[in-house]
Write a structure and sequence with these properties.
The complex is a heterodimer of chains A (99) and B (229). By secondary structure, chain A is an all-alpha fold. Chain A has one domain. Chain A is built from three helices and no strands. Chain A is flat and about 65 Å long. Chain B has 229 residues and is mainly α. In chain B, helix 3 packs antiparallel against helix 6 and helix 5 runs antiparallel to helix 6. The mean pLDDT of chain B is 91. At the A-B interface, helix 1, helix 2 and helix 3 of A face helix 1, helix 3 and helix 6 of B.
Chain lengths: 99, 229
């Protein structure tokens, strides 16, 4: 992959967006959305992390192999958390015979 | 045929600088994958415990200082900006700018750790460090003792708090050490468009540590924040 130098402008735009999203995540925490509080907070965190990975870490100009490694890591995290929660969150859905 | 450079920074087992850069950033990403697994186990355990004891964890989370946490988030994002600028300056062979941005990144990192130290000492004073002196008296909405509150679960929250933020802070300390180490070759003007791999790789590490905090802040500080407001 030939070298790509990111523009200063993009770095400052990402910085501004990250600051706005940080303020937003604190602001929405004042409201009670029930279980949606977690969803909103995590959605904002994922958006912030994506900006850092794509622009600050320059993955959008990385080779396909590097992108594959990044996506693989995220996929593995999703498997680990997702499959574990399918256990913990569904215990008690069905009665256990003899109990 | 292999490229030949004036600085001789192309290792003999690489054909081109592009290939060398690709190999080093890919290697760093593979290391970061293991770091994601390392922190991932902690995050998963926290999520499971928190979903098991949501009320107790929310009460414990209320003891944290959201203002200091938010300021620290901003400080860390600013340090990521200066780190990205340092990598950019190294690609453009701007010798003095690289050193300047590296030092700025260190200063932001130091401020982060300083604020963290203030928070930690407050937790010690308030008996919120897990152990024999742990004390937390939860009060309900009308000031009466919160019903069904289990102090052991709150202590568990603080185990996670100190474990996760402590591990994160340890990564920050290592990162600052790496930045100091980078200043010497940067000052000597060793980095240019062909060879800036050390700055690039430390930059990836620093941004990764920033991302961990981006998740830690809402998970630890903001859960159940609305309850008391």
């Amino acid at each position: 992959m030939s070298l790509h130098v990111e523009s200063k402008r993009n770095f400052f735009l990402v910085f501004g967006a990250l600051m706005v999203l940080t303020m937003l995540t604190v602001y929405v925490a004042y409201f009670d959305f029930g279980a949606w509080n977690n969803v909103v907070a995590m959605a904002i965190a994922v958006a912030k992390a994506s900006l850092v990975v794509l622009i600050f870490m320059g993955v959008r100009h990385s080779s396909p192999l590097t992108k594959l490694v990044v996506i693989g890591a995220l996929l593995w995290m999703v498997f680990m958390v997702g499959l574990t929660l399918t256990d913990y969150e569904t215990r008690g859905f069905l009665g256990v015979l003899g109990k | 045929m292999p490229e030949h450079s004036q600085s001789g920074a192309l290792a003999h087992h690489f054909e081109t600088y592009d290939q060398q850069r690709e190999a080093s950033s890919l290697g760093m990403w593979l290391f970061l994958v293991t770091e994601i697994m390392f922190f991932g186990g902690f995050f998963l355990a926290y999520i499971v415990y928190r979903s098991s004891f949501p009320e107790d964890f929310a009460i414990a989370s209320h003891q944290l200082d959201v203002t200091l946490g938010a300021i620290n988030t901003a400080v860390l994002i600013a340090s990521s900006l200066t780190m990205a600028m340092a990598v950019r300056a190294s690609q453009l062979a701007q010798r003095k700018a690289v050193v300047g941005f590296l030092i700025a990144t260190m200063i932001f990192g130091g401020v982060f750790l300083g604020i963290k130290a203030v928070e930690y000492s407050a937790k010690f004073e308030h008996h919120l460090v897990p152990g024999p002196n742990f004390e937390l008296h939860a009060e309900g909405a009308n000031g009466e003792h919160a019903e069904g509150f289990d102090v052991g679960h709150a202590e568990m929250f603080f185990n996670f708090y100190f474990g996760m933020t402590g591990l994160h802070a340890a990564h920050m300390v290592i990162g600052i050490g790496l930045l100091i180490w980078l200043c010497f070759p940067a000052w000597k003007g060793r980095f240019n468009a062909d060879y800036h791999n050390p700055v690039e790789v430390v930059g990836l590490y620093w941004h990764f540590v920033d991302i961990i905090w981006i998740f830690l802040f809402p998970l630890l500080y903001l859960i159940g924040f609305h309850v008391g407001h």
